[in-house]
Amino acid sequence: MTEGMLQMLIPIVAILATFGFPVALVYVWKWFKLKDKELQLEADMRKTSGQALEARVQRLESIILALDADLRAKLSATSAPRTDLFEAPATQEGSQPGPSLPEATKTR
Fold first, then answer.
1. Which parts of the chain sit beneath pLDDT 50?
2. CA distance 68 to 98
């Protein structure tokens, strides 16, 4: 490029920057406004879908408990602590002694 061509490009670039910068600002402003609205809608949708899911789970639990009275009795019985779970199992292996270990000797 010669110096004359650069001198001709300076006014063209200045005009494009003068009129293009406000257009770019408006475009960026609208773009972020749109993205903000999309995020707000998505957050509202997630909140309502979470509440709907919770309502479905509660409805299913009530149906299951209404259909099976034994299940309700089992659930109330399992809330009490079971002491038989804390005891060690009685097996024949535990009653018999295992093989003796050899004595440790010092070697150098």
1. none
2. 49
Give residue for tokens 């099976």. Answer: 68
Dist. CA 104–CA 15, nearest whole Å:
94
Task: Give residue 18's pLDDT.
Answer: 93
pTM for the model = 0.40
Cβ count within 10 A of residue 82: 8
Query: For residue 99, which amino acid is it?
Result: P
One-letter identity of residue 105: T
Residue 65's contacts (CB-CB under 8 Å, 6 or more residues apart) are 71, 72
Q: For the segment 59-72, what is each residue's pLDDT rounded down to a tens digit?
A: 998 888 777 777 66
43, 47, 53, 59 alpha-carbon torsion, rounded to 10°: -160
Contact 40, 33 (CB under 8 A): no
pLDDT of residue 96: 59
